[in-house]
Design goal:
Length: about 400
């Protein structure tokens, strides 16, 4: 069975996003199966080579290597009428729908290329790795070629009247968490058309790192990891508050190692503000910004704890299962799909981003009680094997495709 995998991610120079990594894991999982993957990337990434290494055929629609940045403009605050109109448009979702149709017109050239690829490769099923809101061109190409299509929702569904109509024409949806599944249901999609399929890691292609012990009495540096795009909603600024809390309670032998880059101008300003605040508070020695790194480079550095600080609901939380796989305990904000990964106090810890002080006793217990930290890691490792291992996902994925063919 030939399946076309479509990815719309944009190259912002901010490293490789979670959707691209998840799609690679998916394609790797299909190796030696009856599924023949054809990967179509809307935009150019050097990362495409990793897809080719799996044996998959790869098409790139936009081969330009030019980075795309989000423009930040100044809004005049004194234009009352303009602001009122914008507010009305926002409430009615009119501006979002206008943007959707603008994108559809802009992407018309990709529609024709997709139709040609679908016909040339005799595609039987299209698996879109992006939300329909971001990939109308593949939906239209599927309908023109009469090819079944499944949308893999890795982000919250927008409840837009212009999109809801098109969603009803899709054959199937995959949601990466119940949080995302519920967002689809709120747009009018019935439960029977949605399959819950958590993200996973393909362990065959990864080197698992051993557990790193820590001795509180040796005055070792306790190494705290943070991984993710540097942007306001990822909440890296919370790490400053956590650092202050630890110091105020008498513990200073720690460092934060921040993996990730700021991709657009807004994020760059955010990073500047974080660095400025770190300097003002005299915390420079506790923060190490390491930029973008590979999976292997990140987890081979023997970290003792990962803190995940998103201040907006995460669709899933891929970094969390990566840490679980690599025997690193996790503390994360209790928002979105993260709550489906971590059982608080058993396989990790959840916290309210508005109550940073609550973290101090948790972190200090992990620092002082090595057996307790090792116990959390063991339970998390079991959770990973049962719920997020690629070994038990292949059969479910193939069943989804086969059921679609049967119904068709």
């Amino acid at each position: 069975m030939k399946v076309l995998f479509y990815e719309t991610a944009t190259n912002t120079g901010n490293g490789v996003g979670g959707s691209l990594v998840s799609l690679l894991n998916l394609v790797q999982t299909l190796e030696n199966s009856k599924i023949i993957p054809i990967v179509v990337l809307k935009n150019y990434f050097d990362y495409y080579i990793d897809y080719e290494k799996t044996g998959a055929k790869v098409y790139i629609l936009n081969k330009s290597k030019r980075l795309k940045f989000t423009k930040v403009t100044n809004v005049k605050k004194n234009n009352i009428i303009k602001n009122i109109v914008k507010k009305i448009f926002s409430i009615l979702n009119i501006s979002n729908c206008i943007q959707v149709f603008k994108n559809m017109i802009r992407n018309r050239i990709y529609f024709f290329r997709l139709v040609n690829i679908i016909k040339k490769e005799n595609i039987e099923i299209i698996h879109c790795n992006s939300r329909l809101e971001l990939s109308i061109e593949i939906m239209l190409a599927a309908k023109v070629t009469k090819t079944q299509i499944i949308f893999h929702y890795r982000g919250e569904a927008q409840n837009l009247f212009c999109i809801n109509f098109l969603r009803k024409k899709a054959d199937k949806f995959i949601a990466i968490s119940n949080y995302i599944k519920n967002s689809l249901i709120e747009t009018g999609i019935t439960k029977d058309r949605i399959v819950l399929l958590y993200n996973w890691l393909n362990e065959i292609s990864m080197v698992k790192q051993p557990y790193t012990s820590y001795n509180y009495r040796d005055n070792q540096i306790f190494k705290i990891l943070s991984v993710g795009r540097i942007t306001p909603w990822k909440g890296q600024h919370l790490l400053i508050e956590i650092a202050e809390t630890l110091i105020n309670n008498g513990f200073v032998n720690f460092n934060f190692y921040i993996i990730g880059e700021a991709g657009d101008q807004h994020a760059i300003e955010y990073l500047k503000n974080i660095n400025s605040l770190i300097k003002i508070k005299g915390l420079e020695s506790h923060f190490k910004f390491l930029g973008t790194k590979s999976f292997r480079d990140i987890y081979s550095a023997n970290y003792h704890l990962l803190i995940h600080t998103s201040v907006r609901p995460e669709p899933f939380g891929r970094v969390i299962i990566e840490a679980m796989f690599n025997n690193i305990p996790v503390i994360a904000t209790d928002l979105g799909g993260v709550k489906e990964i971590i059982i608080d106090g058993i396989t990790g810890f959840l916290f309210n981003p508005n109550h940073i002080d609550d973290l101090n006793p948790i972190i200090m217990r992990l620092i002082r009680n090595e057996e307790y930290r090792a116990q959390i890691v063991r339970k998390a490792s079991e959770t990973f094997k049962n719920n997020f291992s690629g070994k038990n996902k292949l059969e479910k994925l193939i069943n989804i495709y086969q059921n679609m063919k049967t119904i068709h």
